[in-house]
Amino acid sequence: xxxxxxxxxxMLMCVVIVGTSLAEYGYTxxxxxxxxxxxxxxxxxxxxxxxxxxxxxxxxxxxxxELNLTYNKGDIREAAVLNYNxxxxxxxxxxYNGNLYSYDNMSAAYDDIRNGVLTLDNAVCINTxxxxxxxxxxxxTYSIPRKTYIDYEEKTNSQGHNAxxxxxxxxxxxxxxxxxxxxxxQKRIDDGDLxxxxxxxxSIQLAYIDLYKGENKGFYDYNESTGLFxxxxxxxxxxxxxxxxxxAPAALGDSKDPSAIKAYVARCYENILGRDAAAEEMNTWFxxxxxxxxxxAEIADQLATSAEFKRRHLSFADMVDNLCKxxxxxxAEATEKTDLVNMLKNGQRLKAxxxxxxxxxxxxxxxxxxxxIPGTVKVPVIIKK
Length: 385
Hints:
Oligomer: single chain
Largest sheet: 12 strands, antiparallel
Number of helices: 10
Radius of gyration: 25 Å
Strand order of the largest sheet: 6-5-4-7-8-9-10-11-12-13-14-15
Shape: globular
């Protein structure tokens, strides 16, 4: 992985993760994180030797403000970060350890990144960067060697990217192969922090209080059998006694409804292809949809762009009606049908119709209640000469 950057060939990393709704206290599976969506990034250098990050990450939909790539010489304390600002579209570099690796100027650092002396670290981060008080910040981390997102962290009462004020809460969830493995909760008061670590089933693995000032200054371990922290109640240390009952930041259990997922697959085959799904087809789609490997949009897209569908020679009206029956579990409403049919009459692709359906509240509700990842349909850009 340290040789990942070969700028002569223009590095391209593809992240194949899509996101849907936020659970009450966090996320059971990585696919539930709204910010964990498909994106690519490319690092290039211009004729002046300046680095540029080009990315299609949909920051407007997720609220992201920055993408950060960290480089080092093998010592993480000597780190240089390429920072891409989604809002301005600019790339800049931040160097740590105070002395810019003893470089006399930025261009020397740029040269070492371009020439592979500084190499891309193991993680890519996408994050918000609120710099005022009482904000909510989040950071999503993607592991290059593991080729997956590995954790998501958010905090309230943010005071800049790394700080949190009194009254703030921090929640961190970690994943392995897309499935929750552990989570962390932190509550801050004026004098210090309550920290709780949970395992994958939501049970408390350890908890402690670290008060770094005040009359109770000190470190207090949690005893599960007594419910006390080094013999003291939470209320004696400045917290609420019920804080220890804070649910794990990730909602546990699998919300996917097997019967609803199979019903969605069956509707897609029945309405798009005009036939029942074969047993193998049903099993394959069911497994992929249940595991979060495929989205509800993908099955509709794949079937509606197949040769088998084209051989049906359906009218525009029937195409729209059948897609609505498959994806919305109802026929198209009158106005809706007119609008979608007009899209096809005006030369837009069927993919554009499916994408429009994917953006409706009705489609998102069907996916939510069925435990499906909604996804969307990408519409190719037609370049007219």
